[in-house]
Amino acid sequence: MIFNIVAKKYQNLKNKIVQWGNWSNNNIQGICDSVV
């Protein structure tokens, strides 16, 4: 039961990291396109 709660929180955290990674990748690409 506790493991399920931890797994769920980890899943949420992982999703946030993935979203942040996608956002930063898009921004970096946008900045590079602007410079080039």
Q: Which term fits the overall shape?
A: rod-shaped
As a percent range, the share of strand residues is under 5%
Category from helices, strands and their pairing: mainly alpha
Tell me the Rg in angstroms: 16 Å
The mean pLDDT is 85
State the helical fraction: over 70%
Kindly report how far apart the N and C termini lie.
Answer: 52 Å
Oligomer: single chain
Give me the number of helical elements.
1
Which regions are unreliable across 5 or more consecutive residues at pLDDT < 50?
none
Element string (H = helix, E = strand): H
Concise structural overview:
This protein has 36 residues and is mainly alpha-helical. Helix content is 94%, strand content 0%.
How would you describe this protein?
The protein has one helix at 2-35. Helix content is 94%, strand content 0%. It is rod-shaped. The chain has 36 residues and is an all-alpha fold. The chain is built from one helix and no strands.
Keywords:
single chain; 36 residues; mainly alpha; 0% strand
How do the helices and strands line up, and which of them pair or pack?
Elements: H1 2-35
